[in-house]
Amino acid sequence: MLMMINECGHPLCRNCVENLFARNSGPCPQCGKILWKKGFWEQIFDDPMVEKENHIRKKLRKIYNLKRADFPTLRDFNNYLERVETIVMNLTYNIDVEETEAELDEDQIWIHQMLEEEQKRKKLAIESVGDEELSGKATSANKSKAIIDELRESDLPAEVILDRQRKRQIEAELAEKEEAFRRKKSKMEAQQKRLDTASFAAIRVSGAPFVYRAPELPINGPPLPKPEDLHRMGYLQHVVQISESRYAGGFTPETCCMRALFDSRIDLFSF
């Protein structure tokens, strides 16, 4: 039996789809959502929720397609990825669907605006390049004519006139390079401003930076050994070795051993 599935994530067999959606649209038998017949596709994964999540990711890829190079810092890029994953989870498991879809609409509008601005900038750049080429040809023709006229009418040697013209040409090329650098810098500043305006970064609360200070625990008993001396002093001989996954989480044999030593020595001098 060939199973079909739609965006709501409820599978139906092909015969059911043909019968229930003979008019190309109709409600889902399980959730009542209006579906289109052309929106069904052949189910690949055994779990319908995985199929639904895969479909949602394909749709969101058209909207959220930014890369690491589009963000100033790695944290901003990670926040952007976390935002995408939150949207995928909400749409997959029907959590705050209306609010999530409203956020999608806002992001899609912003992306379309950015694309339109990018197309306008490319169009202006192409037009400016064409104008510069035309003006450059006209300018070079005028310069050649001016040099010929000056050589014909001036009493100065030809070497002096040509050297002076080369100097002017070098100065013009330097000025053109400076202008190109200024335009590039202005474009980068505008791009950075757009990223700052539509940043996916978390809201940072300003204040003094956190400084860790080890707590002082008055045990009122014999002093405790240092954690780095526990193995040398033989305290860890009868402590169960832990797995590598717990090591990765920051849990070490010294942790439980120090806790047991603390509990055994606290308040021994109180009586």
TrEMBL record:
GO biological process: nucleotide-excision repair; regulation of transcription by RNA polymerase II
Residue span, MAT1 C-terminal CAK anchor domain: 219-269
Domain of life: Eukaryota
A GO-annotated cellular component: transcription factor TFIIH holo complex
Residues in Zinc finger C3HC4 RING-type domain copies: 5-31
Limits of the MAT1 centre domain: 36-105
Keyword Zinc in record: yes
Matching InterPro entries: MAT1/Tfb3, MAT1_CAK-anch, MAT1_centre, Znf_C3HC4_RING-type, Znf_RING/FYVE/PHD, Znf_RING_CS
Main location: nucleus
Cell compartment(s), UniProt: Nucleus
Coiled coil, from the record: 167-194
Pfam families: CAK-anch_MAT1, MAT1, zf-C3HC4
Gene Ontology terms, MF aspect: cyclin-dependent protein serine/threonine kinase activator activity; zinc ion binding
Keywords assigned: Coiled coil, Metal-binding, Nucleus, Zinc, Zinc-finger
Protein name per its UniProtKB record: RING-type domain-containing protein
Origin species: Litomosoides sigmodontis
